[in-house]
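seq as requested:
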Amino acid sequence: MGSITDARTYRFCLHGVDLHYETSIPSLAAPVLSFLRHFHTPPVSGGASLTIRFQEAKSREQIPIRASDSAKLLFSGTRPSMGDSLRSIWRCDVKQDGYLLIADFHEQGLLAIDGPAGTVEGYFVKPDAMHADVCTSFFHYALTELLKRRDLFTVHATALEYGGRGVLIPGYSGQGKTTSFLSLLRAGYRYLSDDYPLLRDRGTHMELLAFPMKIDVTDRTVTMFPELHNAPPGVLHQGICKKYFQVEDLYANSIGQSCTPAMILFPHVVDVPHSCLEPLPRSRALEAIMPQALLVYDKDVAVREFKALSHLVEQADCYRLHFGRDVLDLPKLITPLLEMRRSA
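struct tokens:
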């Protein structure tokens, strides 16, 4: 078993936020390096503002961190971490223990998150037997807890960029979120994220920031798109619950960066020949997007996140997308609206 004293440090820069990831365990390193491969750039300030350390514990009893008897239970149960496909693969108790937020994954391990200091200590039992997606989900959980305290918020949505304008498509599994996303992607839109893009409130405007991940697809979705159905061997991989692929393997030059969010689409699948858009009042759009935000345990952070989401729906055009059977024709409905907005 490796120790933290012989850990290797990996450095990343996430939209101006420096991150150090430390681990001595190869099975804890490889999934995270793949997850953050688009951010493997030199730090912007010469020093890390966030640090996440993952270590191995031989048993649950050897994890050196315990919540005190006075710790307050904030959450208990199964929860999504990186999309609906991982909704129930780990149980978690979240407790506030002084300045620490402790996420206890029971027999799998534990995270101790020091939000003010920008550090996370993680201990995991038998990491070599852990599926790569599970390791990545633990890391993503830790990272988002740190980022939201730096006013980088995220929502459960797919996101694309077209001509400097961003499109957000929030929603749960089965509502047409990924299918509509792929329909736009293949039409020349640029990929920002399949599950959790980042949002930053600049005061005068909102920024939609890229967080590229692997793209999860169901077997039914694969049949809808010729490039997926006829993909060469090795492009589609089997994950825990769904198949997945890396966007650059199918769509060249398709990864975007920061942009201005211009449109929010709330999809639901309907059995009609043609898709259509229904303008959505901003009050209803805010109600619809709030459940797609991650849980926030800090009251001050929650207030800032609510203000950011309110600013987002004020800035963007909001629609209910009644997504019909014309899956490949969706860009004909969306693109003219974005072009009109760009020329206005």
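The radius of gyration is 20 Å.
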